[in-house]
Structures are given as structure tokens and as C-alpha cells.
Amino acid sequence: MADRDDTIELLGKTALFGALDEAGRRAVAQEMREVSFEPGQVIFARGDPGRDIFLVTQGRVRLSVLTAEGRELSFAHAERGAVFGEIAMLDGGVRSADATAVGRVTARSLSKPAFTRLLAGSPVMADAAIRFLCQRLREADHQLEAIALYPIEARLARFFLAAARQKAEEDAERVTIDLGMSQGELALLIGASRPKVNAALSLLEAGGAIERQGSRVLCDIEELERSAEFEL
User: Fold this and answer.
1) In the chain, what is the greatest distance between 2 CA atoms, to the nearest angstrom?
2) Which among 133, 148, 163 is the end of a domain?
């Protein structure tokens, strides 16, 4: 019962299910089943049929694609409370990316037949699904723009700034975040090599934008904003 209540609470914080009332979220939770994945396990691969949508309850999932040169590009990490696998579920196509467990992951999965049934019976959820996909497209556009136009230190500054703003209280000047990933994972997410990311981290630290404390990073909001707005 406690697990289901936790799922209902997490569903309420998602863009896809958050517009539902408690009864609607409870109906979704009742259709979900618990799944778990070991570190490094491939949850699904690009080109697979989209049979389920997932809600992460613990852990982190890397969403990535392989470039034409065979290099892996990670475009997002799905953490606790995040939904992933929705594109193939909504359009009936195949998976558009690989999903890999970074560490041990537990999640709730919702089958496509159950999702379709719930969607058909809820105009609110249908509208939320459209908004959710539009949000995903905007995020993808912003990420492509950042990779194409901004140097690595600016991309890193934007990454830390977004993480800090999620955690910061209003008007906070300095915020400590738990990075929760290796430098290699960070490099994949930024779209750069690990040595270049390490050099960019050193530049941000030398400029006072961040201070590394093991896996934790102390972020100076004002300095990060300056670095994020770097102009070519």
C-alpha cells in the first residue's frame, strides 16, 4: 500500500500524469507493475517495439543514441520521478533511443494496452500527452542548439545551473548539488569527450562558478549565469 501511495505521489509530479485527479492517478498506479534492472542492463534498445512506459522510482537511467561514427551520445538521464519510453508508446512506432540502467534501478511499468485504455477514457490525460510531447521536442531543440553553438564550459554551466535551480530556495546565491554520476557519464550527457569535460570543469572552478567536493558540487548561481551566457 505504501509503495502504491508513493507511486501515486510521483505520478502527480509528472507532466504526463500530473493533471489527473487523485482517483485518476490511482487508476494509473493500479495498472503499473514493479520492475528492476541491474547496473549496465539495457532496458530497451533503439528500434525495439514500444511495449511499456516507465516511471523511475529509484536509480538513474541513461537515454542515449549512437552517432554515425559509433559514438554514444547521452541526451538525458531519467531519475526518480521521471517518465521515459513515452514516444514509442504514444505514436505506436519503435524505440527512438537506448535506455540503460546506470546503477541499480527500480521502476513502475505501464503496458501499452493499459495506457491506451486509460488515455481513451481521459480527455485530461490526452491533452497532457500532447503537451508532454511538445515539451520533449522543445528540450531536444534546446539541447541540439547548445551542442552546436556553445562551448563545453557554457554547456556545463547550463547543466549545473538547471540542477541548482531545481534545488535552490528563492534568491539563493550558492547551492550544493549531488552530481550523482561519473565524469564519463557527464561527458556523454554534455556531448563531449571526458578530457574536454575535465578541462571545462577546471575552467569553471577557476572562475568561481563551481567548487568540487567529491561527488558534490557547490554552485555559484551568479557566476554560472555568466558562464552560461557565453557568446561566441
Assistant:
1) 55
2) 148
